[in-house]
Specification:
By secondary structure, the chain is α+β, with helices and mostly antiparallel strands. Helices cover about 55% and strands about 15% of the residues. It contains 26 helices and 22 strands. Helix 19 links the parallel strand 20 (about 535-540) and strand 21 (about 555-560). Helix 9 runs parallel beside helix 21 and helix 23 (about 655-685) packs antiparallel against helix 24 (about 690-725).
Amino acid sequence: MPQQTRVAPERPPDERAPDEAAATARPPGGGLRSLPAGGGVETALLAVTVLATAAGGLARLLGARGLADGLWIAATAAAVGPAVLWVVQALRRGRAGVDLIAVLALAGTLATGEYLAGALIALMLATGRWLDSAAERRAGRDLRQLLAHAPRTARRRTGDGLHAVETVPLADVRVGDLLVVGPGEVVPVDGRIAGTGAVLDESVLTGESAQVERGHGDAVRSGGVNAGGAFDLRATATEQDSTYAEIVRLTRQAGAENAPVIRLADRYAARFLPLALGTAALAWLISGDPVRAVAVLVVATPCPLLLAAPVAIVSGISRAARKGVVVRDGAALETLGRARTVTLDKTGTLTTGRPRVLDVIAAPGRTPAEVLAVAAAVDQYSPHVLAEAITAEAADRGLHLPQVTRVAEHPGRGATGTLADGTRVSVGRHDADRPPAWARAADNRAALDGAATAWVVLDGEPAGVVLLRDPVRHDAPRTVRRLRGAGVTRLVMLTGDRPEPAREIAAVVGLDEVRARQSPADKVHAVQAERARAVTVMVGDGVNDAPALAAADVGVAMGARGASASSEAADIVLTADRVDRLADAAHIAVRSRRIAVQSALGGMLLSLAAMLVAAFGLLPPAPGALLQEVIDVAVILNALRALRPGPGAGPGIDADTEALVRRFAAEHDDLREVVEAVREAADELTDAPAPEALAAVRHVDDLLTTRLLPHEEAEEHELYPALAHALGGPETTATMSRAHTEIHRLAHRVTTHLAQADGNGALAPEQRDDLRACLYGLHSVLRLHFAQEEENYFSLAG
């Protein structure tokens, strides 16, 4: 396996402080998000209103009515000045939102002596502004991790000598310069390989975990990490014109062009404000009594907007957090609730991002266990991502690894070693001029399955091959179905990977469109095109996804293992390594937004009815304020329903059932070798002599009888009844029980054929054909059955 070195980007001794470096390293174009001036006013206002309102309540309980009114007046007056300032700022931007109604309501409460109502309005206004300010300040850090990864210096050759190298600022690199990129270093600028080849980890650019090999003259993009030995790079671009700088610029520009979302409360306030003012003015004009106008404004106090809508959204944010979903602000949750298009990265989002052994194919005369043990014995010393998967698979199967000495890494070729008997072993690439038939068949299968290959070669002869693939997340198909249930009508994959594996995964999970070989710029353009049609969400986990996340209406980052830059550029971060949390967030957003709209509209309708009564002089200001408080309590109680799970929340299982699910999921992992043994036995019936083929079938029959069938029986009698209770009845597991019946039927048929074989171990031709069909059919049924259980049941475990 080629070496994968994990080191931080080079930091020379004279490097500037991080903040200074970030400031000077930013390309022109402004910040990704607008950073607020400070947030000090919001914090101070919140502190004053909380203390004054609470102290006033305590004074009233102690009987000091005058002191209580004075404190509440102070809280109300403290909010008037900032609120007026915010109104002026909004009017300059051409928007008149909820703050204007709040100013009028605050003035109305002071005029009518409803001081407690004024203090409460001030408190709610201060709380909402402080939360908005905190969310904006947090969103202003989105480029930090992008810039931390970017190299700031380069090593440039100044002559032909080994030590004729100087370290220069990256800005001083010119087209044509010959640079040296050491092991683990980040490629500083775009260029072409000069001299020997290179092995690069370009996951930061493409999101794909597989490493790539570049030969002499091949183009290389900045931002990749050298995963092999040192190589020379002929610069073809300056720092500002290179790929990684373009990613930073795209991220910033996409965020800057992404217009801020107008809060739901402001949208309704824009309609409610002229109605309230018009009603108050008309009541004053017709009656000639200004008290009627004040009474109208008092009952028009926008508490359904100031309180109910934000309470519903904040309740949704709180519920999402309990699901492992961090939502940066209420606008993100509101927008997610209106989303109709979701674009998704592939690696690490729809797939696990961790390659896994798909199969081990052995040369004739060898066993898969032998091949895997030898491969793991060599690869246990390699940090390569595929080597880790091979070593983990051998450990899961409990294989004994032979002793290997003189292990060496060969970038681009793999790893080599020597067994105790002197046999030379290599694991990685194998370029045979005339590969045997079984090896050609293995290559064909790898191409069909979209799998990577690690060839095991003993003394120059291929002994077997390990097929590896990044598997689809068990919860991905269910996530797609639940997203459609939440109102999403279009799902698109945007990936830097090849079209073939991308299309296969899209078919498995049920996507509408696939766009493969996408660069960061391509992803941004694709997201912008989708946004022109509908509210669009982008989901990703790598640095290369950061520009697209910023370009979307809502960016969602897989934050459990993904790049920090993508998390910083996102509006929503999934802290659990589960893509189904996206579906949870979507259902929570839809429900919270619906409750917020219900509360706001219901409260405004009730206020409108009270305004009409007050306009006719039937509701004085003081009773009107009391009625408004009753309306406020009603709509807030309704808004708090967003804290509870609603329809579409997904099935829940108790702790005992979850323990069962985890137990059987672990057994599935152990039984994967049994499933593959069934296929290998069927192959033996085609290729191997009769005695060897029959021995392979007898081995499979023993595995089925002692391991697989007891597992299926236990599922039927332990797991399925527990899941049926949680999922809504026995019909929910009926189809899976039918699969158990078919598995038992085919396994019994295999046993029957073996019983009918004669004493010499011979099978009649018709038996051989039927037995082969039984084994291939059993293998297909088992793979499908395992996949269905993992998708529908095992993914329920948190």
